Amino acid sequence: MEAGGRLAFHLPAVKDSHRAELFSLLLRNEPLTRADLAALASLDQSTVTRTLKPLIDSGYVTESPAAPAGRGRPRRVLRVAVEKLCAVGIKIGPRVISGVLTDLGAKVVARRELELDHPGPEEALAAVAELADGLLAEVPGSRERTLGIGVGVSGHVDPPSGTCRFSPILGWHEVDIATPLSRASGLPVSVHNDVNTLAVAEYLFGAGREAEDFAVVTLGPGVGLGLVIGGRLYDGAEGLAGEFGHIPLLPNGPQCHCGRRGCLEALAGDDAISRAAGVPDVGTAADLARNGEGATKRTARRAFHSAGEWIGRGLAVLDNILAPELILLSGEGIAAHDLLSEGITSSLRDCAFEGARALERLRVDSADVNLWARGAACLAIQQSLG
């Protein structure tokens, strides 16, 4: 396979850059007529027809009639045959390593996970290789159709080298993920910050298709940020952009995983909520806030309200600096959005330069057990498309 897992390995005709661009546009926006695709690519229809012919002939793009909007013959629409190719996505967390196998449209066709409590790099990467192998074995014929493996990991990741420079939550420093995993699997491996993989997923197949500039903010054990600006993932110098959870908001505040004090994550992450609620974990805190009684319920609800206020302040900083078209709240912490929302809303309204308009740009994603691993699979898809 070519470096970076280019789609050319599976589709020789896509070596042409114009053909690859049309294929990518179709995958993100399907179904499209030839006229629609030509308009998106700023090409004439004859060029689109000529360029796509090898992909249609080989079955990677299909064409079928659609019901006409008015009088006349049905228009023919183009779609990608997403079932012909696969991608593996892996999320490495502090206690669980989850993985999925998806088709080219990011539909999950197999899922597995392994529970490991704060594994070291060697143990974690061995588990990742085992997980990927199990996923490919579960779906006959998928190994030959797999574009590559995408891996999402929290913290500072250097994508070109596939190295995790520093992950406070995992406690990792300078861990090469891509090289040993590629050697073990025989597949190209792409590695990125886990929230950036969600931004890629939203850009390709989610709410990000509606916006050229948007932000994905994740809530949970950490507080993360993925940015797409001008239709491109913005990851900053050496992949350092997006450390949203480490914005210092409270001088001499509680200590954060990163070693500093008063970070947003230390004020609004899962550990902060459970600590303020006086319980061992955030799930217990949420249960008390919804179903508890008396003082324990009030304490738990205050913990979530306070976390929501800090999140709202952080979102106000983000909106004041970038004013993206869309801010999407995501991550496992969204399961407690009903408990966080009042604090988020009041704080964002009060602190953003144009509070009401900032609230209009805020959208809440749905909680999904496959969220992180599917995002990592989308990273592998995006890399294969160049």
Shape: globular
Mean pLDDT: 91
CATH topology description of the largest domain: Nucleotidyltransferase, domain 5
> What is the C-level CATH assignment of the largest domain?
Alpha Beta
Instruction: Tell me how many strands there are.
Output: 16
Total individual domains: 3
Terminal CA distance reads 13 Å
Percent in strands: 15-25%
- Write the H/E string, N to C: HEHHEEEEEHHEEEEHEHEEEHHHHEHHEH
CATH architecture of the largest domain: 2-Layer Sandwich
Helix content: 40-55%
| Radius of gyration, CA atoms, in whole angstroms | 22 Å
The largest sheet, given as strand count, sense and whether it forms a barrel, is:
5 strands, mixed
The number of helices is: 14
The CATH homologous superfamily of the largest domain = ATPase, nucleotide binding domain
Q: Give the neighbour order of strands across the main sheet.
A: 6-5-4-7-11
Class by SSE composition:
alpha/beta
Low-confidence spans: pLDDT under 50, at least 5 residues? Answer: 1-9
